[in-house]
Structure prediction request, 317 residues.
Amino acid sequence: MRDVLVIGGSYFVGRVFVEELLKQAGFRITVLNRGNIPMRMKDVREIVCDRHDTRRMGELLPPARWYGVVDFCGYTPEDIAGTLSVLPDQGLEQYIFISTASVYAPTLELPVGENAPTLSGLLPELGPFAEYAFYKRLAEQELQRRCGRRHLPYTIIRPVFIYGKYNYAPRENYFFDLIEKDETIVLPENSLSLFSLVSVWDVARIIIGCLGNGSALNRIFNASAGELVSYARLMEVFESITGRQLRIEYTDIGEIEARNIPLPFPLHEHLVYAGDLIQTVLEFRYTTLMEGMHETYRYYRLGRSLSWPPGEEKHGG
Prediction:
């Protein structure tokens, strides 16, 4: 059996990853998190521990040889340093770090590939996500330094906007809520902003494809489906998957900002990222936006009548 340690992993991407890995033969899964959202999954060992308590983490982790460590909740270089400090050199075959495409510096060269410049400092113009993005980049660098010194293989995955099952971020669910209530969706008029999306199932499959894959070692990959998405295209998809004619009000961006309408995707810029490298390395095919949103809406509708995920309060998605 190949032992996989999942750090975080109780919700959204991590939970879907665990569900998908359980479908694969030959893996023994251990999940370490704070226990706020219990997994309660058959054949998954759960360890309740705050990753910042490295002494306790070292005591609780079984003496396994980890085929892979998949880190979903590393946000600072200290998070990486603390976790690696309790993992012996001879007991770790690969460290997979889930980062973010937000680590890239602003650029006009699109789509943004893995070799594009990354953030070298805090950029206030990035708003509330400035610190998150910069410290994620510092965490990547800490992982590369420490793994380099210890000759430990790593893989870094940088997803773009993720949608799908268990999503707690108000992205597609923001629109689904309005559609279900037959309320008006306010959108920017003449908006040409384009952005990249990726389904949560694709991110999970990419991680699984990287596990133990020699071609993925010591490399960085974007997770980004190839379709260029706009608000207009998103509405077309939503009308198709819901079978409804949407109520849409178009107004200028200034009015949207003045009214504090919480649109989840960019209004002033393109956020377009290349995701073809991982396709080549893994011989991987991304889920189309239509396919992925259709499945997402199915889970959304299910979540309106059930506690979703199991054991948690329903939240509209």
Summary: The chain has two domains: 2-160+197-226+272-286, 171-194+230-264+289-317. The first strand starts at residue 2 and ends at 7. DSSP finds ten helices and eleven strands in the chain. Residues 129 and 272 are 17 Å apart (CA to CA).
